[in-house]
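User: Can you help me understand a structure? I only have the sequence.
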Amino acid sequence: MTRTDTIGKLLAVAALMYLSSGASFAQDDDEGPVTQGDDARYLRVTHVSFKPGQRESAMQIIREHFMVAGEKAGTPGPILAIHYQSGKWDATFVWELAGGMADLEWYRSPNNIKWFAALAEISGGTDEAEEILMNYFSKVANSVTEVGHHHVAEAE
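Assistant: Let's start by predicting it. Here is the structure, written out as tokens:
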């Protein structure tokens, strides 16, 4: 194990100990459940690695089809997109869950339905839209989605 690996592991353990000692996590205390608070903003973060040689064509599908459909449907896109030069992932996309954790309860949310309808309209029909999706997914080697939150200070 290299010195960098050792330091990284020590920092991870220290962060875990610090975070697990705080009262800011959802848990019960003597007065009832403690939630994340009104200042918590929930995020869905998807990390993606593409198959070798497929990154650019996947990003082209996102630009030419997915983003255009989102604009046409008026649905929110990612609030942040990161394109990596190194590491395990090729890209990370971050969406705000405007409805909080309740946004995760949908099998197909109203925004997803509007977005797919727009994709079908701009691509020539439902079959064509599904083909675009399948083409994109055929380029993905692996993906992981995580959910978290951050706290936003209220404006004074």
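Now, to help you interpret it: Confidence is low (pLDDT under 50) at residues 3-28. The chain has two domains: 1-35, 40-151. Let me know which part you'd like to focus on.
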